[in-house]
């Protein structure tokens, strides 16, 4: 091995040499993790409130997940969808038993799960109503993935600039504004797509009135309701899926992120009637439903889907919110703290508009990892099993970080 590739020589500068410049990562290079703690190459430790962007829902190095991965690694990794496999059937069985859904399609990511959902709503409408019923409505500030189709359904124009011509037949209403949706929905609408809590758009929960109104408008116009639960799913809000706490059932639900606890996997869930439009050959995925991913996801699902775990998410949430509000008041930085469960956003006040990134960077300096959700919201999405001690230590570090800039 040449000196050039020796381990100690990999730094943030290596990224600039060898990686496409679409990310701007930290100078820290994390090397190992345990629970909600991470250590970098230099041995510094950090409390992880970022959770790999709501992905590592059981923290790092969780014994049940490590065991599932190792056990399956000794058996079979990949087959393709010419065959099926036991871990995939087991996981689909669990997902359908625990939710409204009858059928599951496996993918590798949230973007792919959404791509499948958006193709399915058009195919279903085409099969059942004809080709005119093809329009998709989603909401401004929403985020649904990075493929060309999903980024267009997303409501943030900055992500589509320079990629024109864009897929058509997509429009955007105002989130939490029923009149705005009512004004554009019609019998040509095949689906309304929404996040129960807007994630990248600033951690904005849907109001109960809004979500029920959206469901009613979809029913009135024979449009399907798609819930993008990529970020809110698998226990994040204190329910297995957020829709379960909203008194509304979608027709299609997408899930990923926490579903694999860090192993790439996603899924689209729907009913028998709607699933019937995906006949053999209409859609597919080489890796989707591979035994390795499904084995890990089974372990994640079994660990999170218990009344105790889901209740503890709500208890921990209340603790974190109270402390964040206290920090916000003390240093005059946050106007409010919002979200559901362990998907939380501390909203910067007038004085701090546009400066969310400063809080992330100060966090790194003080040994805590947090996220942003846009320019004006500091986002926390820690592991659902984060301990009280890790919460306290992390929030103490976060307070020091805030103090250092405020």
Plain-language structure description:
This protein is an alpha/beta fold and 406 residues long. It has two domains: 3-61 and 307-405, Aspartate Aminotransferase, domain 1 (Alpha-Beta Complex), CATH 3.90.1150; 75-304, 3-Layer(aba) Sandwich (Aspartate Aminotransferase, domain 2), CATH 3.40.640.10. 37% of the residues lie in helices and 18% in strands. It has helices at residues 12-18, 51-54, 63-73, 86-98, 110-129, 148-153, 178-184, 208-220, 272-275, 291-304, 307-331, 356-365, 388-405, and strands spanning 30-34, 37-40, 45-48, 103-107, 135-139, 170-173, 189-194, 197-198, 204-205, 224-228, 252-255, 266-270, 334-340, 343-348, 368-369, 371-372, 377-380. A seven-stranded mixed β-sheet has the order 4-12-11-10-7-5-6, with helices on both faces. Helix 3 (63-73) runs antiparallel to helix 10 (291-304) and helix 12 (356-365) crosses helix 13. The longest helix has 25 residues, at 307-331. The protein is globular. The protein starts with 11 loop residues before the first helix and ends with a helix. Mean pLDDT is 96; it is low at 1-6.
